[in-house]
Amino acid sequence: MFGERSIQLVRVAGIRIGASPSWFLILFFVIWALSNQFQDVLGSSQEVAYLVGLTAAGLFFGSIVLHELGHAFEARRSGIRVEGIDLWLFGGIAKLSRDSESPGEEFRVAAAGPAVTLLIFIVTCAAAALIYGAGDVMDVIRLQDGSANAVELLLSWLALMNAVLFFFNLLPAFPLDGGRIARAAVWKLTGDRTKGTVAAARLGQGFGFLLIAFGAYRIFAQDDWGGAWYLVLGWLIAGSAKSAAVSARVTDRLEGVTVGDIMDTTPVTLPASTRLIDAEEWFERYNAEWFAVVDDEGRLLGIAERHRIAAAINAGRPALAASELLTPGDPVSTDQPLEAVIGAEPLRRLGAVMAVDQAGVLRGVLTVEQVRRALTTAVP
Q1: What's the per-residue H, E or C state across the chain?
Q2: C or N terminus of the chain, fewer CB within 10 Å?
Q3: Do the beta carbons of residue 341 and residue 258 sit within 8 Å?
Q4: In the predicted model, is pLDDT for residue 228 greater than 90?
């Protein structure tokens, strides 16, 4: 999302729901646009129309959160860790710790979101039909019934937007949900995840180019600058699809490469009994920001970080053992596939990840530079 850091809004069942700064801009725009539109439909004051528009925007983005929670809960049920959900300029995204491991898992996770959206559509349509009659539902949904009150308008508008969200997401264009379902289908038929990803990504690129062409037509042929929205959306979809195809090919070439194949097998480590004042000399000597700390048998105990040790020394505890001031190592196995650890948190935070054997003995350190070289070699 253009490198934006999201702002936490709430937690649902332990899942962090956040929003990027760009989302707040689109939220204000949606409220303003709906307020103007609803004022004409309701024939009410500007204040009432604003409150209805604010409520409608909240319900719509709530629907998007529920859609992403559908993905998240199904992923969690499949054993995939959910790192959070973020709202951004063009909707929402559930961030998962890993990719699907089978076509069935991919299908279930991808289909869960649209299933929730379809359920919301059915419930809102049923509620609207019960409140003001099935015959008037479509007129109000199309905003063609000037006699609608605020409740009828909210229910109908929410039904309409969830119908749009449902059909748009089911388009067979990666990275949309429909594209992921198409990926699962090709994967199932061919037995090859890479072929499934590349096929779905090509559909995604094609759809993205169509959106770009439509946006350009709106701008230049119809003098409608609303087409810029389609230009940006098409560019994002086409770019994401292309990245997915390249990533799939890279992953395919990395198949069989393990952490142990490319890691540094002779890393400098810090003995657990080292005093902090002595550890500070190690940091100076090697110009390092951290060291892996091991016990007498070579088992990894954790990470000693330079800034924490310096703070403890300044606080008057220079004789404290390094083992008393450790950050968790979060190690990986030496035989773990390389593609499975590329997104590991220590690799992002420390620039390296510790590799241990089954007994917990440190066998090597995998650095960002080693991963980069491996990826460069694998790029098609």
Answers
A1: CCCCCCEEEEEECCEEEEECHHHHHHHHHHHHHHHHHHHHHHCCCHHHHHHHHHHHHHHHHHHHHHHHHHHHHHHHHCCCCEEEEEEECCEEEEEECCCCCCHHHHHHHHHHHHHHHHHHHHHHHHHHHHHHCHHHHHHHHCCCCCCCCHHHHHHHHHHHHHHHHHHHHCCCCCCCHHHHHHHHHHHHHHCCHHHHHHHHHHHHHHHHHHHHHHHHHHHHCCCCCCHHHHHHHHHHHHHHHHHHHHHHHHHHHHCCCEHHHHCECCCCEEECCCEHHHHHHHHHHHCCCEEEEECCCCEEEEEEEHHHHHHHHHCCCCCCEHHHCCECCCCEECCCEHHHCCCCHHHHHCCEEEEECCCCEEEEEEEHHHHHHHHHHHCC
A2: C
A3: no
A4: no
Find all residues with CB under 8 Å of 126, minimum gap 6, and list them: none
pLDDT tens column, 154-177: 888 888 889 989 999 998 888 889
pLDDT of residue 1: 47
Q: pLDDT tens digits for 359-377?
A: 899 999 998 888 888 777 7
Q: How confident is the model at residue 257 (pLDDT cuts 50, 70, 90)?
A: confident
Q: Contact, 347 vs 366, CB < 8 A?
A: yes
Residue type, 51: L
Q: Is the Cβ–Cβ distance between 321 and 275 less than 8 Å?
A: yes
Q: Give the residue-averaged pLDDT of 282-300.
A: 90
- pLDDT tens digit string along 110-153? 999 999 999 999 998 888 777 776 665 565 555 554 556 778 77
Torsion of CA 69, 75, 80, 81, to 10 degrees: 10
Residue 180 token pair? 């992921």
